[in-house]
Design brief:
Length: about 150
């Protein structure tokens, strides 16, 4: 599975594969993907996602840890040591490889994650999407301030 490319001049592709016998995260050059390959995760990993600045790669572990690896661009990617950012609570989606990325990282660095609602894993649930809620809140507050 392919993920967003890093947005800097050197192009890298992050993906997950079970070629090691477990699901792990790898990085390859793009578009010449056969030129090289580097394993990023140490003890399994999935759902890789580049930070918006391309200098960090995030992924999840089978133990439900959110990991980050610093990436220094160049002829070969300078990969830092994976570090644990936080552990995902049980009610957050993504406790096992799901073949998609169940989170995103906002421009300000906050993680946006899917959370299970009601019932057991795999049971149907409603999804409520509130668009433009901040604009509506501002309008309501203006009305309250006006006598």
């Amino acid at each position: 599975r392919l993920r967003r490319r890093a947005p800097h001049a050197d192009r890298w592709l992050a993906y997950e594969s079970n070629e090691t016998g477990q699901t792990d995260v790898f990085v390859r050059p793009f578009p010449n993907t056969e030129a090289a390959k580097w394993q990023v995760s140490v003890a399994g990993g999935f759902a890789p996602l580049w930070a918006r600045n391309g200098r960090e790669l995030f992924y999840m572990t089978p133990a439900r840890d959110m990991m980050a690896v610093s990436v220094t661009p160049g002829a070969t990617p300078g990969l830092g040591t994976p570090r644990k950012l936080f552990r995902l609570p049980d009610d957050f989606w993504g406790g096992s490889p799901e073949n998609y990325t169940p989170y995103d990282v906002a421009p300000d660095g906050r993680f946006l994650m899917a959370k299970r609602v009601g019932g057991a894993a795999g049971s149907a649930a409603s999804l409520v999407v509130a668009e433009h809620w901040f604009s509506e809140l501002e309008q309501l507050l203006k009305k309250r301030r006006t006598p």
